[in-house]
Amino acid sequence: MTRTVYIRPIALADSPQSEEGEAIRLGGSMAWASRFALIVRENGQVLSRRRFGAAEAGEALAALPADLGAAAELQWSNLRKVHAPLICGARSIRLEQPQIAGILNITPDSFSDGGAFLDDAQIAADHAAAMLESGAAMIDIGGESTRPGAAAVWEGDELKRVVPMVERLAAMGAAISVDTRRPAVMEATLQAGAHIINDVSALRHDPRSLEFAAASGAPVVLMHAPGDGDDLHADGRYDDVVLDVFDWLGACRDRAVAAGIAPEKILLDPGIGFGKTLTENLQLMNGLALFHGLGHPLFVGASRKRMIGALSNEAPAHQRLGGSVTLALKAMDAGSHIVRVHDVAETVQAARVWRGLRDAALTDFAQMA
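Above: the chain sequence. Below: its structure as tokens.
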């Protein structure tokens, strides 16, 4: 019998003042939580669920069985953990407010903008420059489509697509993450000036990836996807998608740390849209705050995903701006540190208004006093 424990924030606050100080700051972000659910599972089934306020945390955790107490204490500490900035060459990306990563797909078949930037390197570079000027903190470059049913890409083709663009963006001084599952591409792009490895297979696709990522010292994004072969969307079966993805990411994190990757170099992505139904994706978005309990910055990408079309009369990918911004703001409300999007200018504008509202909430009560 395996019992596991989870501390899920269930009441978010605009500021700690609104809860008279009885709220915690989630992951060093601009999101606060005042109430929590303490959940115990055994073999995937929920045994108990207790609600408590921030001031009652000590009492609630002390009442747990001895075999769960240490894990709960660690999660409670992780929920309040402040993360150091990401160092990307000469650039430093601070994580106390949400940052935007702009998507640049150098592919013929990505679900949203496949082919738009493949044939003309100057158009792709101009688009990346525009995203940076609009306020993107980094550019996330991908040379392989990971949409359902996408054909596998030969490693040589991926290298030809991605490396020259990394060199161009590095010359601009951009912070660069590379969306790849292949260690040869990881190595070549880091040498070309990239800074972050963003692996949608969580370093499982190639057995050499873990060793290379550890040796490189680069920050790594580990994303949840249920498939362990070429089809990352396969085998998506869950008892509770939020808790199951939490457990899966925790296990992948532990595997990465055991391989020599420093914990402070790991970011986690719940994998919105990968092997999950519409309902499961919505549940994950509603449960994002839980993932602070793993103790790593959160990297969330829901931009233009299929779930938006499913909720908006099957709108095609290029007509999903409103839904994409809504999901980006939802991620910010939960304290996500980096939000990966296609529509940078619009999302940055939304994030700046969101930040203004948070700043105002932090001073409202002080002025009233």
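The mean pLDDT is 93.
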